[in-house]
Amino acid sequence: MAENQTGKKATDGQQQRRSSIYEGDALLGELGDIGNFEVPDFNDINLSLADFLPSDEMEETRYILPHFVQYSEQDFVLYENAERLAKELKPISEGARCDVFLAGSFIFGDFIEAFMRENQAHAEEMTISTLSLSQENVDSLEGLMTHGYIDKLNLIISVYFWAHERNGLLPYIYQHLDIGQGEDGTGGRFQLAVAGMHTKTVHFKTAGGKHIVIHGSANLRSSGSIEQFTLEENKKLYDFYNEQFKKIIEKYATIKKPIRNKNAWDIFTRKHFKD
User: Fold this and answer.
1) What span, in angstroms and rounded, lies between the C-alpha atoms of 253 and 201?
2) Alpha-carbon Rg of the chain, whole angstroms?
3) Are the beta carbons of 128 and 156 closer than 8 angstroms?
4) Strands 201-206 and 227-233, how do they pair?
5) Which end of the chain, N or C, is surrounded by fewer C-beta atoms within 10 Å?
6) Using one digit for the tens of pLDDT, what is the confidence trace for 93-110?
7) What does the alpha-carbon distance between residue 253 and residue 155 come to, in Å, rounded to a whole number?
8) What is the DSSP string of 133-202?
9) What does the pLDDT look like over 211-228, one tens digit per residue?
10) 119, 149 in Cβ contact below 8 A?
């Protein structure tokens, strides 16, 4: 038996419980972000209380069945919900702020597209952080980049999403968003960073000088749950977000800048003839 901080000896049971806690913490550290999950098929869920309540308590009980709400497939993909909100928020004046609650059918990625189109906004650089996203979100962002709404896009995703989609959606993201050289010719228009993060944010500066920050609970894709976000025109907040996320992108970027001209030849000759 080992002594604890008070000088008393810990029992074998206490040591075993501590060991279990330490092992659990270590396991969570290895798993990283496990907060994202798919909405289950409610048709397969048995909501009956009979499995865990005694039969004599079935007529009158303190326990209440959870209220599950199902949205049809059409509700999850409807674009007009996001478009309607974007219209109501237009135009965004200097210093404006709006707090919004969203139904489970709302797709946050669609709102970004609707907001840019409704305001005819042009972002020189947009940074998005999200726990997860869908192929439809990728297609929407590609459209914004292709049609001149976004010059450069930084996308920060969670380690959890990377681990589960590295052979699924990740190749699609690279293929459809890493689509060209930047104006300075030193790098592409897209950067993907992967980090142990749980933030859901968007920030960008428009060509008209507006500093837009959107932050809240919603990932780019629909979750089937009530969500919220805040949209602000706030230069100080934008500068703060931009400074912090730049550090993350620099450290956890997955796309290297292309090696060009003389530097490329120097690296080639050093690697093949001097190593």
Assistant:
1) 17
2) 24
3) yes
4) unpaired
5) C
6) 888 888 888 877 788 888
7) 9
8) --HHHHHHHHHHHHTTSEEEEEEEEEHHHHHHHTTTHHHHHHHHH---B-TTSSSBSEEEEEES----EE
9) 999 999 888 887 778 888
10) no
Does residue 19 have a pLDDT over 70?
Answer: no
Burial class (CB in 10 A: 0-12, 13-18, 19+), 156: buried
Helix %, strand %, coil % of the chain (to 5): 40, 20, 40
Distance CA 2, CA 188 (A): 59
Cβ proximity of 190 and 255 under 8 Å: yes
Alpha-carbon distances, residue 31 vs 34, 38, 200 (angstroms):
7, 17, 20
Tokens of 84: 């309607």
* Burial per residue of 214-224, b for 16 or more beta-carbon CB atoms within 10 angstroms, e otherwise: bbbebbbbbbb
Nearest-5° Cα angle at 160, 112 to 43: 80
For 73, the 3-state DSSP assignment is helix
pLDDT tens for each residue of 133-155 = 999 999 999 999 999 999 999 99
- Residue 91 in this model has a pLDDT that exceeds 50: yes
Separation CA 215–CA 201 (nearest Å): 4
Residue 70 CA to residue 121 CA, distance in Å, equals: 35
Model confidence at 62, pLDDT cuts 50, 70, 90, reads: low
Counting Cβ atoms within 10 Å, is residue 253 exposed (0-12), middle (13-18) or buried (19+)?
middle
Joined together, the tokens standing for residue 150 give: 């976004």
Side chain identity at residue 175, one-letter code:
Q
